[in-house]
Design goal:
heterodimer; A: about 210 residues; mainly alpha; 2 domains; 10 helices; globular; B: about 240 residues; alpha/beta; Rossmann fold; six-stranded mixed β-sheet; four-stranded antiparallel β-sheet; 7 helices; about 25% strand
Chain lengths: ~210, ~240
């Protein structure tokens, strides 16, 4: 499993500000669900694919890798609509989601995590009046992207250890050792964050002097 | 130079005067479980090794040196700074490398993780970029700039963890079993990295070869320093005791 999706290529899409890309993604998401015309939604999907392959110069396999996990859900959604509504509504729903997933993949593949985090920190800055620390929010997002694949890897190791001792398939019994490992990891991570100066990160105002603009 | 919280330049930790690490009558317990008993030491040497059985107190000792653990009793001084009351300055001087690099790599990609500590210090973007590139080149990670950290090999992860600490230019570096999870080739590589460091280092390890050329070795046993001296004699005593 990989959530670190950035694909380093020199392209205008890579150079575009992260804030602009996220705003366009948000606008596309809202637009896709407001428009009921299948031809327009299919056009949007084609446009996103063209941007991904031609403008952002992303390898096809990188896009396929991002879309592959949602295929089963799209298939279920299509079958559901074929049974409950009709093929046109089902195709519209599936195409919408596919376009949105592809567009999100383009944003994450062309934007470094630090740039995405900087945008999120900028967005939550007004919450500072309620005591929210934007740098902390950004760190949580970055660590989520970092640790989801790591925890998946640890879960796989536990599955293998259990399989080596005769267990088969998914077992609830793996949750306890996984939880223990995650808690241990969290304790050491807390120490590591302290040791690397994250106990009191610089304020957004201080960071603006050096950090790239979102 | 180093950059402070408001962007003002302050003296880099590496440029500050070094005196010693001092433990004065230090005891520590986790709840009801004592792990260190009345340890008094002065470490002025450039290379100090720490060995001992699991549970002997050596990792707690290492954590005391940069304030990750504050002693239940006694005082720990880093170049005269009390870890209990001058924690921020102590941590700026003392970097810490953990056994499991996965637990200290916090960002998804290699360069972003090395940059993390510099961002916390308020270092300007151009200076951060320069130092990150320098570190990645020094530790053979230049080709992995945007590589997902979790896809690195074990040895590369440990090198990344070390780079993430050293980029902050600490004056001293504490390594807590840095080679325990590594194969022989990567153990040797990390040993070379430690050997080439200008900083004063304290290395906690089970790999006795790692301590070749060190100035001093401590042997911990049941929360006490059971032996303390030159590496050759001290390690011989330790090995004899185990056999």
């Amino acid at each position: 499993m990989t959530l670190a999706l950035y694909v380093p290529v020199a392209s205008p899409v890579h150079r575009a500000p992260a804030g602009l890309k996220l705003a366009l993604l948000t606008g596309l998401g809202a637009g896709l669900f407001l428009i009921e015309r299948l031809d327009v939604v299919v056009g949007a999907l084609v446009a996103v694919a063209v941007v991904a392959l031609a403008a952002a110069r992303l390898p096809l396999r990188a896009l396929v890798a991002q879309v592959r996990p949602v295929w089963p859900w799209l298939a279920v959604l299509l079958v559901f609509h074929l049974v409950v509504t009709d093929w046109r509504t089902g195709t519209l729903a599936v195409t919408r989601l596919l376009a949105l997933v592809l567009a999100a993949a383009v944003v994450t593949a062309t934007t470094r995590v630090t740039a995405l985090v900087a945008v999120v920190e900028w967005l939550v800055r007004p919450l500072g009046v309620f005591g929210v620390r934007p740098a902390r929010v950004g760190l949580v997002i970055a660590m989520t992207l970092r640790f989801v694949p790591l925890i998946a890897e640890r879960a796989q190791r536990i599955r293998e250890a259990q399989a080596a001792r005769g267990a088969t398939g998914m077992r609830l019994g793996m949750l306890v050792p996984l939880l223990v490992q995650v808690l241990r990891l969290a304790a050491t991570l807390g120490e590591a964050l302290d040791a690397r100066g994250a106990d009191a990160p610089v304020s957004p105002r201080d960071r603006r002097a050096g950090a790239p603009a979102p | 130079m180093r950059w402070g919280r408001r962007g003002a330049e302050v003296t880099a930790a590496a440029d500050l005067p070094r005196t010693a690490l001092e433990l004065q009558n230090v005891s520590h317990a986790y709840g009801d479980r004592p792990v260190l008993h009345d340890v008094t030491l002065t470490l002025g040497e450039s290379r100090v090794g720490v060995v001992g059985a699991n549970g002997s107190g050596k990792s707690t000792f290492a954590r005391l040196l940069n304030g990750l653990v504050v002693p239940s009793a006694g005082t720990v001084l880093v170049d005269g700074l009390d870890t209990r009351t001058q924690l921020r300055e102590v941590r700026r001087r003392v970097g810490f490398v953990f056994q499991d690099p996965d637990a200290q790599i916090v960002h998804p990609t290699v360069a972003e993780d090395v940059e993390f500590g510099l961002t916390n210090l308020g270092v300007p973007a151009d200076e951060r970029a320069r130092r990150v590139e320098d570190m990645l080149a020094r530790y053979g990670l230049a080709g992995h700039h945007d590589h997902p950290a979790h896809l690195l090999s074990g040895g590369q992860k440990q090198l990344l963890a070390i780079a993430g600490v050293l980029v902050m230019q600490p004056q001293r570096v504490v390594f807590d079993e840095p080679t325990t999870l590594l194969d022989l080739a990567n153990t040797r590589r990390v040993a070379r990295v430690i050997d080439e460091l200008e900083q004063h280092v304290v290395v906690v390890t089970h790999h006795l070869d790692l301590l070749t050329g060190f100035d001093r070795v401590l042997v911990f046993e049941d929360g006490r320093v059971a032996a303390d001296g030159a590496p050759a004699e001290t390690l011989r005593w330790y090995v004899d005791r185990l056999s």
